């Protein structure tokens, strides 16, 4: 995630970090070259058909519709993923407090909280597609936490009230976990990507035919601006739609896990580690 | 569900798998033929009335409104269905953990979890319209699970805390089940389909009259692009609005059920089956 | 509710069942007659002022805004109402299961479930504005169910866990009931209807002045298409905004109540009635 | 709240009750006079600059964006407020049932339900800005209800299950109360009102310069229609954004409180009062 | 937060308090100067290329899409933050009532409520980025409240029902706290700001080329109006996206904390402080 203030004049002109420009530079170059070629051909070789604005206006409204929908859907995925991790952070803090309140046995409590910490890291790794230790996984860890509770209950160290409270906490964690897995495993329907990219290309490639008459030598400028907005938005959407990826706009799962560690530390009798800081405006 | 990466150049040009093109080819062919015929007739036989952009602009905004609304509503149905199944997956895992915690009797616990597994498959079959075994059904299975709990409670093997916890889990499952049935049994109002398809056809058939003057011999190209965006979106919408169907964009219920089986296996003392993999980019 | 497949060619051309055409035929006829009159007067008697597209484009965007907002709000009402009834269906099934689990006395349990069945029918009748039996009503029935629980509790046949479970179920049902009453008693603000209908009429009546020059003898065709989309959407909205009415797009409350009866039957020791089927594509 | 059927022909032409026309008449008059003056000046004195549609189209899209956003936000406030009061209605009915189930002492129960009734009226008065009795307020009343429960619990007349149930009900009521106070105390950001009203005025005052050429003597008609839609929508928004006010579109809190009284009456052994009826189509 | 009535004529013309005008004055000045320069150069020195409306219409729709999306997302953040604080207010009142009901020991109760009051102020300070006392923080305070409960439970002064109730309250507070931290720590993706500001600048700087022919000497007026709407909306969005900041549109956390103090006072046996009042229309 990029953490920068509202862009000032300098950033507006030059900021590349956090910008989509580097990702769409090849597409822009191609659109620019073709627009220049169309303009030169039209002036010097043979006039191209000069299209009116009509077809592009209709086309543009439809394309905006796709782009807008896809952008909203992708942002919703990103923000829902962030909410789920915010919920997991609150869950880890509440688990520690509920364990203090309902679990008398210090040893079991420590094991439970250490397992919670492990769970968060395993969950993060699974979402990021990192390799997991053999026989380990977020589910295995939650099962282990549940076994701790079952043992404590059978040994009379956890009463019914505590069992209900802590078991509800575990199932809340499992729900957030399944929510993250849902977002990871179910991308936006592929068909939208095809529709959007195909239509954006058609639009940008045909646009010079409509611009060459009214815009003259500014044709490539306008074609580039339009391509910048359309491809830029499509690219941003692609990144936000995968909130657990490794792109600049992905969620800072490492930093959130660290916050959870900070919250668990006093309950484990440990010193809290420092929060992660953004490096070069980027927090991972 | 189609699982592919962001489309590269090759996919943009040639991808048919996951594309709507094959589904709307007949409509596109008809629009293309009529556009060519209108253009030729206008050039060679007798000029057609050349319409200005005005009526189409207004018309196009209204049509975009319908298409956009229907698309949003269909996507919401699809995503809500996915959320409900993600919730069922979490429910099956939490049921196993709660049974471990609150149900001492191993035999009852095994029966309960096996019934849960059967329930998911019966629920999936019912949503997909597959034949159910005689006298079986998701509701029958949930009733059977509840009877297991009632017996355990009367035999003193399930205390009040456990009864509340497990009965709340069952009613959560029943709520998700009713949610899926709601989506299956209540399609998007038919009247929207009529409005959208009728208006799209009128638009595409009349469009050549507005294009023939400004677009010249590019008339069929533009008519086809507009038809592609409008019919393509209408077709995608139709598929997403039925998330439990057998289309390429339907939800991968088999794969989700398999995930639930994997989560239940250790609690049943069984080896976990492997997760389902996409075949030819498609996961069912 | 209309239950039809995706419209094929024949339905696109001729379907009236589920279409709004019959409802807006008078308005369309009036718009058509006036458009023809304007065109003839302009050609033969005296030229009318020929308006440019400008005012209509602005006007059309504003009108689309109203129509789109109202349509979304109406669909949200309809879908929320459907969700509430889907929740009531799940509530009736869970009530039966919870009664099996927590209420030992068969007679009280039967009375409770029969009252639930009566409640659903009374609730449906109240929403539809049908006459209720004297001294009966959904609230009276819920009070009666609560009295059954209170008696069982005082007689020691319902423990604290069961009382909490069943009382939470009743209050969930009361919440869904109040939600349905809210939708029924609080229509979309009347002022939106006035704004939309007044603006639609002004638009359609003035439109021929903008069309007569660019569209020529196609003026009435376009005026009719625009009127079809605007009045059609306004009419659909009106129906969906009243999900408990008797229109073709109202919710099939009879069919949902029947599903609840089917789910309650085995718990009452009765044979399940068959589900309701659509008659002439319509389910009530 | 205005309760009228779908507007028929007569209402479309003449309805003022529930219309925004009376509220925006001065603005419309000013716009009309200025449009006539601009037209006359242009014809008879000296031609004004005749603007093309371009700037107004762009401007109009931006203005629609503001108006649409503000309208959605205001309607969401209004509908959320209605949902909160619908929830309070269900809460009052469920409180009565839960008291019957868990509170044996009739006297305490009566006091509790009478306090609930008082709370609703005090809450309504506070939201409407009416004077409250000295030392009274919705919070004071909820505290009093809680004290009743605390006394019953200490006297052994309310067990743990009942205490949890009734205390959860009270905190649900407190949440709905805080939600209403939030809507009342936090208006839509003022800056939006300024942006919308300033932009609407600029638009309507400059519009005749774009209309005078294409629309001729219809200039004032179009200017008035556009002003009607823009100021009308802004005015409706203003009313809906304050759902607890005294305008025609405010929520009928009196009628909802009466419904709660009707539901509480049988539990208090009283005769139920009749529901409030709309007077001159208006329910308060 | 600015608290003003619906703007009247005087405010429309002159209000600066709560307006974005002061924040965007430099941008507007630059746009105005450039528009005047372009107009003068075009008239007196050498004609600039006169662009048609086409490219700007397409461009404008895309820009509106970005602005609209960003505005919605920012308002949602602002309103969600307000809901979370409204929930915290209700939580503090309900905590006081639940403590009265379930915690017999007056001293522990007083400590708990005083800690709640401290928590709110610490939470507010952390969100606003104010310095916190050494070793203090909202989490530390919640841990201390939990320890109070754990001690009371171990001393037999809090039974299982009370422990579940109060512990659920604490975890609800922790969830709202994590929600606020989420909004504070996760800004809107930076890439949107870049896209919006870059596109707005390009649009406003190129616009005079399209206006100079149709708008003549009104070119700077229209350029300024368009810049006012675009930069104004972008600026408002920036403020609302940071609801815990110190801007005029930030949330009045001081006033909400004061309301919580007023609600806690009677439970602490203290006199309630007066509510905070807006100063110069502004509430902090």
Q: What is the rounded distance between the termini of chain A?
A: 6 Å
Task: Provide the domain count of chain A.
Answer: 2
Largest interface: A-B, 57 and 70 residues
Number of helices, counting only DSSP H or I runs of 4 residues or more of chain A: 9
- Helix percent band of chain A: over 70%
User: Quaternary state, please?
Assistant: homopentamer
Number of strands of chain A: 0
**What integer is the average pLDDT of chain A?**
90
Work out the radius of gyration of chain A.
26 Å
Main sheet characteristics of chain A: none
The gross shape of chain A turns out to be: elongated
Percentage of residues in DSSP E strands of chain A: under 5%
Helix-strand string of chain A? HHHHHHHHH
User: What structural class results from the helix and strand content of chain A?
Assistant: mainly alpha
Describe this structure in words.
The structure is a homopentamer of 284-residue chains. By secondary structure, chain A is mostly helical. Chain A folds into 2 domains: 22-51 and 189-240, no CATH class; 75-187 and 250-270, no CATH class. In chain A, 74% of the residues lie in helices and 0% in strands. The first copy, chain A, is elongated. At the A-E interface, helix 3, helix 6, helix 7, helix 8 and helix 9 of A face helix 3, helix 5, helix 6 and helix 7 of E.
Short summary of the structure?
Chains A, B, C, D, E: Belongs to the anion channel-forming bestrophin (TC 1.A.46) family. 5 copies of one chain form a homopentamer. Chain A has 284 residues and is mainly α.
């Amino acid at each position: 995630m990029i953490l920068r203030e509202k862009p000032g004049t300098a950033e507006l002109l030059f900021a590349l970090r956090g910008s989509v420009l580097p990702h769409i530079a090849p597409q822009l170059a191609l659109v620019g070259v073709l627009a220049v070629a169309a303009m030169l051909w039209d002036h010097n070789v043979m006039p191209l058909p000069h299209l009116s604005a009509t077809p592009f206006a209709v086309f543009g409204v439809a394309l905006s519709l796709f782009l807008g929908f896809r952008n909203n859907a992708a942002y919703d995925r990103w923000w829902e993923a962030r909410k789920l991790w915010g919920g997991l952070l609150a869950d880890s803090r509440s688990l520690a407090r509920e364990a203090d309140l309902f679990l008398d046995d210090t040893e079991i409590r420590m094991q439970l909280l250490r397992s919670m910490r492990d769970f968060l890291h395993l969950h993060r790794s699974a979402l990021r597609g990192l390799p997991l230790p053999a026989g380990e996984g977020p589910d295995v860890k939650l099962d282990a936490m549940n076994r701790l509770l079952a043992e404590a209950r059978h040994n009379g160290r956890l009463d019914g009230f505590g069992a209900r409270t802590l078991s509800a906490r575990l199932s809340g964690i499992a729900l957030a976990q399944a929510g993250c897995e849902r977002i990871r495993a179910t991308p936006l329907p592929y068909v939208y990507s095809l529709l959007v990219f195909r239509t954006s290309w058609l639009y940008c490639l045909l646009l010079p035919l409509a611009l060459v008459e009214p815009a003259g030598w500014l044709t490539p400028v306008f074609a580039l601006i339009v391509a910048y907005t359309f491809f830029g938005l499509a690219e941003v959407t692609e990144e936000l739609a995968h909130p657990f990826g490794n792109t600049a706009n992905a969620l800072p799962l490492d930093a959130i896990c660290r916050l959870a560690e900070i919250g668990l530390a006093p309950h484990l009798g440990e010193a809290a580690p420092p929060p992660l800081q953004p490096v070069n405006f980027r927090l991972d």
